[in-house]
Amino acid sequence: MKLSVMALATIAMFSTTAIGQEQEDELRFGLGGAVVVQDEGYKDVGSETQFVPAIAIEYGDFRLLGPYASYTFFKTDNFELAATGMLRLDGYEQADSEIFKGMEDRDMSFDFGLEAEIDTDFGEFGIKYSQDVTNTHEGYEATLSYGMPFTVDRGRIAPYIAVSFASEDLANYYYGVKAHEATASRAFYQVDSATNFEIGVSSDWFFGQNHMIKADVSYTSFDSIIKDSPLVDKSGTFQLLLGYVYVF
User: Taking the chain, what is the end-to-end CA distance rounded to the nearest angstrom?
Assistant: First the structure.
């Protein structure tokens, strides 16, 4: 199974937080990795453990974080607006499970979009929009998030909630069954747009100027239309991430 977009987003935040400890007008570089345990909810697939490299380069308002890139083109003390591009590595191959036998592989895409972050006295708000520009799933996703970070000794802990709206094209690509893929045990299934809810806790722990450890856990609850897919046998997905970055 390919790594989900949730893991990529977490790695991106992981790398950004680590290299963000340096001076803003310098070229910064961070190198590390993370172990990600996740279950994407597909039938008979179960949880998977993968190692993900965390490579980060930042210069001024530009960031390249593995498969994630962003350019902040507007910024104030408590607001940022950035253009983003990211590989969406969701999907599956026939070899991943018996349920996918005879189906077309669902491939990765490159999604381009905008991201806004708002810092207030009541917490941090985020708005994200991304659109497939590779004609893979041909859909889009919009996400609203809210977190309340607080510091403890050498660390930072941020409980958060988020709601994501996936367009019909996107949701159907990854969870639908096409007419020619239907069998006696796998019915044709057309997925409409879906709204998923996520809750989690993100934490960062710093040791000196060069070392950072990250520990995150999250759970995403599926929209009922995804739960009813013949490819899915769970009500949602979970993810656990443990990682380390060394900042040069």
Answer: 32
Which secondary-structure segment (H or E) carries 30? Answer: strand 28-39
DSSP per-residue codes, 78-97? SEEEEEEEEEE---B-GGG-
CA 121 – CA 125 distance, rounded (Å): 11
Other beta carbons less than 10 A from residue 23's beta carbon: 7
The whole-angstrom separation of Cα 180 and Cα 168 is 19
Burial class (CB in 10 A: 0-12, 13-18, 19+), 174: buried
pTM of this prediction?
0.86
Question: C-alpha angle 233/236/242, rounded to 5°?
Answer: 120
Please give the backbone phi and psi of residue 107, each rounded to the nearest 5 degrees, phi first: -95, 170
**Which among 184, 166, 196 is positioned nearest to 230, based on CA atoms?**
184
Note the pLDDT tens digit of each residue in 103-160.
Answer: 999 998 999 999 999 999 999 999 999 999 999 999 999 999 999 988 988 899 999 9
Q: Which residues of 72-94 are buried (b: 16+ CB within 10 A; e: fewer)?
A: beeeeeeebebebbbbbbbbbee
